[in-house]
Amino acid sequence: MKHRILLVDDDVELVDLLRDYLEREGFAVTAAHDGIAGAALALSGEHELVVLDVMMPGIDGIATLSLIRTGSSLPVIMLTARGDDLDRIAGLELGADDYVPKPCSPRELAARIRAILKRSSGQVGAMPSVIVSGSLTVWPAQRRAERDGKALELTSTEFNLVEVLARNAGRPVSKAELSQEALGRALTRFDRSIDVHMSSIRQKLGNLADGRSCIQTVIRKGYQLVVE
């Protein structure tokens, strides 16, 4: 069964190039050239991942992502202008799973897609059936997490990060390890993706009884899930 990918970009020539490459790599690709059509296709439930350009006329990629996130946690990779940190951070804060700077290498994009799909389907190594750390419970195979018995609404990458932290509860995990394990890629210089994802996760997990965040920043070492 081919993985179903949705490309949303108004650059028809680029879409054709990426579609040709991805189809040769074994993906089934659908294309849309504006945000409205892209959001509708993303919310149809017929795709496994969206590649979404930020700079589109009319409804741009950030607004399109916001529409998608109103009804779907489908993994989304943003295509951003190289060096445009504001767009990257805005996309990550809205729930994008990762970003690729434009002009992008089709080979790199395919690698990012595979990494996210592999992790979102739970195909990374031997997984415990359940991970329990205090009030946090994670079911890796079901891609499900709860805190205090309440389901957590996490994006694919947020779930990956929570799972890695839960497996290592009580010890700091470096940003480099988190990027490799959760995003499937090496951490690059000045990359703030992990920090932005962690900010969102902290809000969703809430605080401990004493008011501290469930996730602590350990200076020069990374992030650590507090053992309650």
List keywords for this structure.
228 residues, alpha/beta, five-stranded parallel sheet, four-stranded antiparallel sheet, 8 helices, 11 strands
Q: What would you note in describing this structure?
A:
The chain has helices spanning 12-24, 35-42, 61-69, 85-93, 106-120, 156-167, 175-183, 193-205; strands at residues 4-8, 28-32, 49-53, 76-81, 98-102, 131-133, 136-139, 144-147, 150-151, 215-218, 222-225. It is α/β, with parallel strands linked by helices. A hairpin with a 2-residue loop joins β6 (131-133) and β7. α4 (85-93) packs parallel to α8, α6 (156-167) packs across α7 and α6 (156-167) crosses α8 (193-205).
Quick summary:
The protein is α/β, with parallel strands linked by helices and 228 residues long.
Q: What is the mean predicted local confidence, pLDDT? A: 92
- The total count of helices amounts to 8
Structural class comes to alpha/beta
Query: How would you name the oligomeric state of the polypeptide chains in this document?
Result: single chain
User: Into which percent range does the helicity of residues fall?
Assistant: 25-40%
Strand proportion: 15-25%
State the end-to-end CA separation.
43 Å
Number of strands: 11
**Biggest β-sheet strands, sense, barrel:** 5 strands, parallel
Q: Using only CA atoms, what is the Rg?
A: 17 Å
Could you state the order of secondary-structure elements as H and E?
EHEHEHEHEHEEEEHHHEE
Q: Largest sheet, order of strands side by side?
A: 2-1-3-4-5
Poorly predicted tracts of residues: none
Per the principal axes of the C-alpha atoms, what is the gross shape? globular
